[in-house]
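Hi F.,

I've been meaning to write this up properly since the lab meeting, where we talked about keeping a consistent format for the predictions we share between groups. The idea is simple: the sequence comes first, exactly as it goes in, then the structure tokens exactly as they come out, then a line or two of notes. No screenshots and no reformatting. I'm using this chain as the first example so we have something concrete to point to.
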Amino acid sequence: MEHHPSRGRRAAARVLAATALAGTAACAAPASPGLPERDGADRTAELLVQVTSVHEETGMTLLEGPVFAPDGGLLVVDVTAPAGEPKVLRVDTGTREVEPVLAEGDGAYTSAQFSPADGRLYLTDFAGGRIDSVTAEGEDRTTFFSGEVDGAVMLPDDLAFDEAGNLYVTDSAGYDEPFWEARGRVVRIDGETAEATVLAGDLPAPNGISFTEDFTGLWVSQYGANRVDLLELDGEGTAVAAAHTAVHVDGGTSRVDSNAVDADGNLYQALHGRPGILVYSPLGEHLATVDVPEDAAGGLDSATNVAIRPGTTDAYMTVSGEDGGFVYSFDALAEGIRQSNGG
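Output, unedited:
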């Protein structure tokens, strides 16, 4: 059966919104799209551990939001986990043991990051249009933000914190039909008051968001356009001073998903529709491609996100498909920082 990653993405989104799968299943890996020419820095990721299996209730599993907790454990979210099953899980990268962290609630969490202000884990609930927070142990679940922003409820996908603890969130409105309406936004939420303001609008379903290594700008992955934009911020971080398209991705049937930035400012762009990561320099040069082993790619169709352990080059990416949800490891091009730890 032919695989259609864009249909798979729409099916996943419908699971989030209605807690039911429309029944779009994949039985073969997508052909490799026309990506930038490879070079000597390319690498093959190694399987660390299988974290989840496909859920009978939702017909799929989708791992996202890898982030290292203060105790060194790698936390991930399972976007399509049904009620009662773990929505946040902890992976011990040494022993490869997996344990549940949070199973309560109805959140369909798509990203996770620890706040530098209060040390809590913040989770974007794509289906519920809100942002929840818990302790690193998954306790004291509270809703930090919900409701409309300028008259419209968000579809919060990914988030990034500035150094003061303010949140910058991609609103992925427009990810589904009608496809050509650019209705997405980048929203800033004050870390103390939870007041939300729109930094940029009329965007083609923005997904990934990460600060540059010096916190002066935001890399925003546009899922609906297969490109990455750079939004340069003003000195207060409350407005966009300048913006331009920085990277065009020739993804073919795949689309840009979440992203991360290492200490050298390199951009790690994850893909939905292909289990791989593209790495670009701050100037947009394609530096490397990270793929899963060829013999594993048949049952995997997305590498949604990546985290690099701060202070090291130990990188981990969340990979999912009909075979289940997995964490793969590889060597990053530079050390991890806050910008490559969650979001």
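Notes:
The first strand starts at residue 43 and ends at 44.
The chain is about 5% helix and 45% strand.

If this format works for you, I'll send the rest the same way.

G.
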